[in-house]
Amino acid sequence: MAEEQNWEETNNHTPCANNCGFFGSPTTLNLCSKCYKDHCVKEQHMSTAKIAVEKSFSQPQHQIESSSSSSSSSSLATALAPVSTDLVVAEVAVKSQPRNRCGSCKRRVGLTGFTCRCGTTFCGTHRYPEQHACTFDFKTMGKEAIAKANPVVKGVKLEKI
């Protein structure tokens, strides 16, 4: 009889704090495992958003301190305006290009698509830069890679006697 009572006391679970129907534990803030995981993800998103907002406010403040002639409210508005338009332009660019079609012939490529250095996806026929009139400058990229890999070595000149 005593063993049954001890078993019942240790099994005294509390329902989840979100009332989802599962049981929670004190180590997970009286949340079930799913609700606790969602809670942790939400906290992580909130902290990253808070850091991003702090960074965005700290950059315009440095600009405001350097320019003393303009008023703080107008310079803050002008400093924040380019940031928001860049985000809108980036979202439009991502949505306008379908990732599962060839950039030249519009054929569906599925998993076999090739992404070129110019940023467009192509089929097997148009994957080469010569086939799709690629806008990426391979020549300049090659020159920069060679220059970076092979620095100029100059010897010390001999002193004339």
Describe it.
The protein contains four helices and four strands, in the order αββααββα. It has 161 residues and is mainly alpha-helical. The strands form two sheets. Strands 1-2 form a two-stranded antiparallel ribbon. The longest helix has 34 residues. It is flat, with a radius of gyration of 30 Å.
Radius of gyration: 30 Å
Strand order in the largest sheet: 1-2
User: Structural class from helices and strands?
Assistant: mainly alpha
- Largest sheet features: 2 strands, antiparallel
Order of helices and strands: HEEHHEEH
Give the strand tally: 4
Q: What are the segments in which pLDDT stays under 50 over at least 5 consecutive residues?
A: 5-9, 61-95
Offer a few descriptive terms.
4 helices, two-stranded antiparallel sheet, mainly alpha, flat, 4 strands, 161 residues
Quick description:
The protein is mainly alpha-helical and 161 residues long.
